[in-house]
């Protein structure tokens, strides 16, 4: 029809037949791939698309390649690991984030799963995370009175139904990552307030087609009695010869004697009988033993805050856990470490947190020395008894990562460090005041460090001088969290041509200098920050680093300062928790001299992130002094 041509007049009356809805499109089970552009754009070709969630309209996003689709879905529904808080790093790396936070956003997962069949199959096949938290589903099962049946009827929480449905949707035989948070709780109306298994957790585990065959990662966090968890992993158990609390060295030796007996017995296996000569009873026994095997379990994380109800050895036999490689065991102070007999000879990544003596801890570590690649130890016990180690150092030939966190006296940490030797160590993370023992351990191991993390309240810089002088050549990551050291000269030994990440948290702002700035005070966080920034400026210029292949123009420098009063609570790390002091700590502007140095480095292309935090009672005095120019900028430059 040409432009401005008059429209034709309708001469016939409209039909009085009822209008019919168009037939819905039928999805072809074999959708056209993205590469077949000719079939999609051809006029004669018939393009078919998968039907969307509404069952009528085609879903064009279903044609995204599986590799890209997998990446997109993981970005959208995977919760990021909380490695950084508002002010500082999350220091304790021994506690897995999965204990507290689900790795997958279930709401976003269900929304994306409802887009189309292709997306649902991709999610079911690749994202196999099941995270059960009993606190979010209290009781998870309750009873209501049914008038018709005249009895109580079980009512299952909707969240449990959805979790069970997610398990049923997963393809058979795929590995599952299962997390159970507080699956037991104390209910006042049951057995006088006893701790019983949450009905929702029972239903969840029972709905799992093959718990022992499909579980690849199992995480359990419980604050009640741990007997059920031990029975889940080892339904047999073994009672020790005597109950020993290892309060002294004699009891510790007796406890390890029981442990060694159970450990050796665990590795004794009955001779196998050929299939041709098996009796019916032997066949039944074989099937029963096969039913105990956790075939795919690669990672096991256990954290308990409750007390132990009995003294039974939990035996995780290598025959029942053939694929177990990563183990995290965090025990309560009333739960002895030696009651967990584990397949240490096959463990590559081990995390131990226990209130145990160094004798028992080192005796257990000796069993795992040949296979360990990563070791994290949390020393929590005030040392029981006296133990002077006379044995030679324990050599860990494959160990690359060592993390040591101590809440015990300095002598206990020194004893552990003096007993280890790791020639291939690459990452060393220590939270203690025993820096001299750490320096001796590094020199004894003759290793080449790539990453060094230090969290300490020590003020003596002698150990830092030794570490920087002998081990900074290959250093790539350096984190130092603590107070003000007596000297800053150790920075002169930090050559670090391969350095790419530098992170300092200094609990060293002198509050007294804010209110009375005219009086002389010892160096504080501002002096440390200026000294560090001058070192960074020299690092990019002196020595011809700009012209060498080791020059890193993208070096990330981070410095965060806080008041000294938080140094007294360094072991509790209140500064790293933004919620704990939300109304007490406030961010303020940088000192003028520090701000000037930061602007200069930013102008040269460096990544420098500085933060200054003060107690709320000192903010007004600090701002007044900064605004009136009371800072001695010229003297500090």
UniProtKB/TrEMBL annotation:
Which ranges are annotated Low complexity under compositional bias? 22-32
Which residues does the annotated region (Disordered) include? 1-43
InterPro entries the UniProt entry points to: LRR_dom_sf
**Superkingdom of source:** Eukaryota
Biased region (Basic residues) positions are 9-19
In what ranges is there compositional bias, type Polar residues? 34-43
Protein name as it appears in the record: F-box domain-containing protein
Instruction: Please give the organism.
Output: Ephemerocybe angulata
């Amino acid at each position: 029809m040409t432009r401005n041509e008059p429209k034709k007049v309708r001469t016939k009356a409209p039909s009085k037949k009822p209008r019919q809805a168009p037939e819905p499109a039928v999805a072809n089970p074999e959708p056209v791939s993205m590469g077949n552009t000719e079939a999609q754009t051809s006029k004669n070709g018939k393009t078919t698309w998968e039907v969307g969630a509404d069952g009528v309209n085609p879903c064009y996003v279903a044609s995204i390649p599986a590799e890209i689709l997998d990446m997109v879905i993981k970005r959208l529904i995977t919760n990021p690991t909380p490695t950084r808080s508002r002010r500082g790093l999350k220091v304790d790396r021994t506690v897995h984030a999965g204990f507290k936070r689900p790795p997958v956003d279930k709401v976003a997962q269900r929304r994306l799963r409802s887009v189309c069949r292709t997306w649902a199959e991709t999610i079911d096949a690749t994202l196999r995370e099941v995270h059960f938290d009993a606190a979010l589903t209290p009781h998870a099962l309750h009873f209501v009175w049914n008038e018709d049946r005249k009895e109580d009827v079980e009512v299952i929480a909707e969240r449990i139904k959805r979790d069970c449905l997610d398990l049923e949707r997963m393809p058979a035989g795929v590995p599952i990552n299962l997390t159970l948070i507080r699956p037991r709780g104390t209910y006042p109306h049951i057995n006088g307030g006893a701790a019983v298994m949450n009905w929702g957790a029972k239903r969840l585990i029972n709905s799992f087609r093959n718990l022992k065959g499909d579980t690849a990662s199992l995480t359990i966090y419980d604050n009640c009695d741990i007997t059920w968890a031990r029975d889940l992993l080892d339904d047999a158990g073994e009672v020790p010869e005597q109950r020993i609390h290892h309060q002294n060295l004699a009891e510790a030796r007796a406890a390890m004697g029981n442990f060694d007996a159970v450990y050796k017995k665990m590795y004794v296996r009955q001779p196998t009988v050929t299939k041709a000569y098996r009796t019916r009873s032997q066949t039944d026994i074989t099937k029963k033993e096969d039913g105990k095997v956790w075939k795919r379990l690669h990672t096991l994380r256990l954290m308990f805050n409750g007390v132990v109800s009995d003294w039974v050895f939990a035996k995780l036999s290598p025959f029942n856990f053939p694929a177990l490689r990563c183990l995290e065991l965090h025990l309560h102070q009333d739960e002895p470490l030696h009651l967990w007999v584990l397949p240490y000879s096959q463990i590559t990544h081990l995390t131990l947190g226990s209130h145990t003596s160094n004798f028992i801890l080192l005796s257990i570590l000796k069993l795992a020395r040949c296979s360990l690649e990563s070791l994290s130890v949390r020393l929590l016990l005030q040392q029981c008894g006296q133990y002077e180690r006379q044995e030679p150092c324990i050599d860990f030939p494959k160990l690359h990562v060592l993390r040591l966190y101590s809440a015990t006296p300095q002598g206990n940490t020194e004893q552990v460090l003096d007993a280890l030797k790791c020639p291939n160590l690459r990452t060393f993370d220590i939270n203690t005041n025993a820096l001299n023992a750490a320096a001796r351990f590094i020199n004894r191991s003759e290793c080449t460090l790539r990453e060094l993390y230090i969290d300490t309240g020590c003020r003596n810089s002698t150990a830092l001088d030794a570490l920087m002088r002998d081990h900074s050549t290959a250093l790539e990551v350096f984190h130092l969290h603590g107070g003000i050291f007596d000297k800053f000269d150790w920075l002169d030994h930090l050559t670090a041509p391969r350095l790419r990440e530098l992170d300092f948290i200094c609990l060293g702002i002198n509050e007294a200098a804010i209110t009375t700035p005219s009086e002389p005070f010892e160096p504080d966080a501002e002096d440390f920050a200026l000294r560090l920034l001058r070192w960074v400026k020299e690092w990019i210029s002196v020595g011809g680093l700009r012209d060498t292949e080791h020059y890193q123009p993208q070096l990330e420098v981070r410095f965060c300062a806080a008041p000294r009063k938080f140094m007294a609570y360094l072991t509790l790390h209140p500064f790293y928790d933004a919620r704990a002091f939300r109304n007490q700590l406030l961010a303020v502007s940088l000192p003028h001299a520090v701000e000037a140095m930061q602007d200069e480095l930013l102008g040269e292309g460096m990544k420098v992130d500085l933060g200054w935090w003060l107690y709320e009672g000192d903010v007004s005095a600090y701002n007044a002094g900064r605004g009136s120019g009371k800072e001695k900028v010229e003297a500090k430059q």
